[in-house]
Amino acid sequence: MSLSIVQGFTKSLAMTVLSEIGDKTFFAAAILAMRHPRRYVLAGCLSALIVMTILSAVVGWAAPNLISRTLTKHIATVLFLGFGVWSLWDAFHEGESEELAEVEAELDADLKATRANNKADDDSKKKNRPLFSQFFSPIFLKAFSITFFGEWGDKSQIATIGLAAAENPLGVVLGGILGQALCQTAAVFGGKSLATQISEKFIALSGGILFIVFGIQSFFATIES
Q1: Can you say whether the dihedral through the CA atoms of 22, 24, 28, 29 is positive or negative?
Q2: CA-CA-CA-CA torsion for 45, 48, 49, 53, nearest 10 degrees?
Q3: What are the E-state strand segments in the chain?
Q4: What is the model's pLDDT at position 10?
């Protein structure tokens, strides 16, 4: 395994773990796993994050082919430093957020709306479901959609694009997938008890420092190239 893949893998793994622990999708997975079979929740959430990681890495890989590699590295540097400052600001000014409670409230509202608009499925109704829904559990689809759209445009997605533009995309994908698998497994099997013990301030502080380190590395790599 080449050094570039290892470097991309380790950076992506560290960034993903620090970005996803305590994130909105992390809390959503923990709450969903308390209400539905864990295997469907884990499969849906993890599938969405794997798809998102691959899409982000592809965009990052394609960026140097659309604009100059030097400009791409400059953009990646600005992104990393910007996200680092943003995370540090959150850590020192926002304190412990109520994101867990907000996510739980959103899912509660969604559950009530679903119960109000849908009665128990019978055999005839099941036959009339769309073909896609017949092959995938509704819980899987729900977990997938909540995670995918919750992650779209998120800081971790944009950071993955920047990392894939600066590092080996294969290493970024492998590290990202492993990081997502670790975080989602912890969320699903740890449940709300684990989620409530996480210090969002500490995670934001650690993530901010990591982003700034990546930004400094990217800056010096741009100067040397």
Answers
A1: negative
A2: 170
A3: none
A4: 92
Cα separation, 192 vs 26, in Å, equals 10
Q: Render pLDDT for 2-55 as a digit per residue (tens, 0 to 9).
A: 778 898 899 999 988 888 887 778 888 888 888 888 889 999 999 999 999 999
> Distance of alpha carbon 92 from its chain centroid, rounded?
23
CB atoms inside a 10 Å sphere around CB 121: 11
Instruction: List b or e across 185-217, with b for residues whose CB sees 16 or more CB atoms inside 10 angstroms.
Output: ebbbebbeeebeebebbebbbbbbebbbebbeb
What Cα–Cα distance (Å) separates residue 37 from each residue in 29, 42, 132, 185, 202?
A: 11, 9, 20, 13, 31
pLDDT band at residue 124, thresholds of 50, 70 and 90? very low
Report the C-alpha gap between 37 and 105 in whole angstroms.
20
State both tokens at 157: 């997605």
Going 113 to 117 to 122 to 126, the CA torsion angle's sign is: negative
- Separation between Cα atoms, residue 216 and residue 21, nearest integer Å: 24
pTM for this entry: 0.73
Q: Rounded to an integer, what distance in angstroms lies between the CA atom of residue 196 and that of residue 180?
A: 19
User: Which residue's entry shows tokens 């965009």?
Assistant: 59
CA distance 182 to 106: 25
123 pLDDT band (50/70/90 cuts)?
Answer: very low
H/E stretch holding 48 reads helix 38-66
